[in-house]
Design a protein that fits this description.
Layout lengths: L3 E6 L5 H12 L15 E6 L10 H4 L1 E5 L6 E5 H8 L1 H10 L8 H5 L2 E3 L2
Parallel strand pairs: 1-2, 2-5
Antiparallel strand pairs: 3-4
Helix pairs in contact: 1-4, 3-4
């Protein structure tokens, strides 16, 4: 199978719709050679990520949490803080990552995601 590219223009689209389209393509479901147990050689590029439209209150309402495993090790960050610290590309990457199944193919599939502002 040849490596194919799928480009998504995120201009004036919501984050969830862009991310679900990218996850669908990363899983290989856009290919006629789709099989569940193989990561397809598909590169997905999300262009104009800086122009994504967020619904009202999403930036303050969405909270990303992570846990270190230690007592009092729960860290929280709102989407607005994440955008200022890490950029919009990290928000898009985390959103797509949440839509990919948790198995051994997750890391190879996520390597094929390119997000550009």
């Amino acid at each position: 199978m040849d490596k194919t590219t799928h480009t998504i223009d995120a201009t004036n689209r919501t984050l969830g719709r862009v991310a679900s389209e990218a996850a669908h393509a990363l899983l290989g479901k856009r290919s006629v050679h789709f099989v569940k147990h193989i990561a397809m050689p598909m590169t997905v590029t999300i262009a104009n990520a800086g122009k994504i439209r967020f619904p009202a209150g999403r930036q303050e309402g969405k909270v990303y949490t992570r846990y270190s495993g230690y007592p009092a090790g729960l860290y929280k960050m709102t989407m607005k803080e994440m955008i200022t610290k890490k950029g919009i590309t990290e928000v898009v990457r985390k959103t797509v990552d949440g839509m990919i199944p948790r198995n051994k193919l997750r890391a190879p599939r996520m390597k094929n995601l390119i997000v550009t502002e």
